[in-house]
Amino acid sequence: MKRTELKRTTPLKSGGIQVRARRQKCCAVCRVKFTPVRDFQAVCGEIACALAHAPVNQVRARKALADVERKDIKVRKEKLKGRADHLREAQTAVNEYVRLRDAHLPCISCDSTPNDNDLMTGSRWDAGHYRSVGACPELRFEPLNIHRQCVKCNRNLSGNAVEYRIRLVQRIGAEKVAWIEGPHEARKYTVEEIKAIKAKYRAMTKELKKGQAA
What we know:
Protein name: Recombination protein NinG
Helix content: 40-55%
InterPro entries: Phage_lambda_NinG
Strand content: 5-15%
């Protein structure tokens, strides 16, 4: 007996297996519609909803929420900073680098070596400018113009400039001191330049600390 060949009456569609799009669901907490990315997903992607829906994950969710809030506060604070704030932060970064750079040296003005070991807070050391920021703002971030100086000389003796110069010549040479004392082109730092200076000296301080710890 001759068998009849079976034939498909409708053609196969091209494209292979088609993945069915996920249907939207209502979040079990906030009731907002969302498209789930996993099977059995009951809440939307908001951390607060995950926290409320799954008590077992409360610690992790609270930490994640706190991290988001901290980052948001940091961003907002950064936006509120003025040029003066950025200048102050950059100067702090430069001064910290200078104090660490000169940690093995005595005071630039009086050769004293005060110790901070008995202090709970603060320091007996400053980063003193040879030419002050007010007199020569162009050199406020110049490391040749800034050296570790005891608080007494820097604050009580207004920089003790005469003695500062004597030891500065001995330390960096008369030619460089003459350059510091010479005329300098006026400089108006942009906020981006100030930020770059702050980042540069923070990185240099970090490297110095690594080297000293090794």
